[in-house]
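#onboarding

Welcome to the new folks! Below is a worked example of what a typical request in this channel looks like: someone posts a single protein sequence, and someone else replies with the predicted structure as tokens. Don't worry about understanding the tokens yet, we'll cover that in week two.

Example request:
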Amino acid sequence: MQISVSSYSFSKMKSSPIERLRLAKELGFAAIEFTEVDMGTAKRLRAESDKLGFPIICYTVGADFLQAKSVEAEAERLRRQVDIAQALGVHLMRHDASRGFQPFRAAHSSFNEALPLLAQGYRAVTEYAAEKSVITMVENHGFFCQDSGRVAALVGAVSHPNFGALVDIGNFTCADEDPASACGNAAVLALHVHAKDFHIKPGSGDNPGRGWFQSRGGNYLRGAIIGHGNVPVRQCLGNLKRAGYDGYVSIEFEGMEDCVEALRIGKENLERFIASA
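Example response:
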């Protein structure tokens, strides 16, 4: 496993995508992935990546098939994002299924009811992406499709060789699922991995205040430096290793600490965890 970093980790900095790419290389990461950029920025990033010999490995974008004007309209928008992924030179692209559970409960009372629409949208995007040599993925992200069982059900429903999962080690806690068990369940689907850690407090206690958000079940979460939180990162990595995963592990930091120092510490810890997992 090699350690990469998401450009999202630098979101607190007033820096350009090019500056983030250069900083990631300076910090000793093996690669970087980017969240949404426009086509012009993508071409400039590709040129800088080639110049530095520092790969961009994944492109991550938002999406919502259930709240869009239509599934096809959202799929068409995402096809244009595939074009950007191709311009970046990446072979992996993740896009969301939906933003959350409650906003569309009236229209889609259960995940099983929504599943055919989600599968329709993902299949339409991945069929186009396959023509561009870009593999698409669903991440356990956004509350509605966050459990390992739901991710597996969606991958199975799409049933396309160009489609799989981006497994985020920490995000399972947003659905109150044990990360180690969830990684064990989802490991065979993993095409890419995010390393993320959270501080976790039970929802039965007082609201800790700024910087915290609530899980689907009402527990309190706050982004943490890798190794400082409650997510069993090393155990999760071990489960992924045993399933045969040997790709990039990309740090996504969203804590309150200085992001550069947090990434230095997180990278050091993640290196130890990978070596001993």
